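To fix ideas, we quote verbatim one protein's residues and fold tokens.
>
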Amino acid sequence: MSEEVKVLGNWGSCFSRRVELALKIKGVEYEYIEEDVYGNKSPLLLKYNPVHKKVPVLLHNGKPIAESLVIIEYIEETWKGTPILPEDPYEKAMARFWTKFVDEKCLPALWRAVWSPENEREKAVEEACKCLETLQSALNGKRFFGGDTVGLVDIAANFIGFWLRIIQEATGHGDLLSAEKFPTLFKWTDEFVSCSVVKQSLPPRDKLLAFFKARVAEANASK
């Protein structure tokens, strides 16, 4: 019996790209369905994720799973292939801890730092930099958070690995992630985007940069 695997995603979403990366690491073939999450959400998306109405959604033999990290855990348990999580229970728990830190602390802080009004930026940048410093400590001399290979934390931190530097370029705010401030983490971003399986699951850089530049222009025009 052939398996049916589909991903409902959006080309520029770091969350749906997480799922694609996990599937590529496992060597699972899938059909990708692009969703217009900003204007016209499809009946398919509303049917399969009625709670959040967001991407990504994984369809496996017609069964929907939503939320990127939940999907990645499902992928890990369903397809043996290359492991995304360590076997050791303690290491596995630590990977989940840092993944939670990325989603609940780092990403919201970085988003505020990038898009806050000027009068609120200084405090937001300070908070975001503290998060990056803490996350950097988790590398602890390793090439990836997962050790020698890309693992759960690396996948979860894909926004920091690729999107953040592009947003900094689009906004002109280069005071977050830099080689001077966070050398170990900055080196990880280079290692991450240079990894062949990661390259296959990233959006086109120029397209993403143009998207964020347009967003900056819109924000400036509305002031």
Summary: The mean pLDDT is 95.
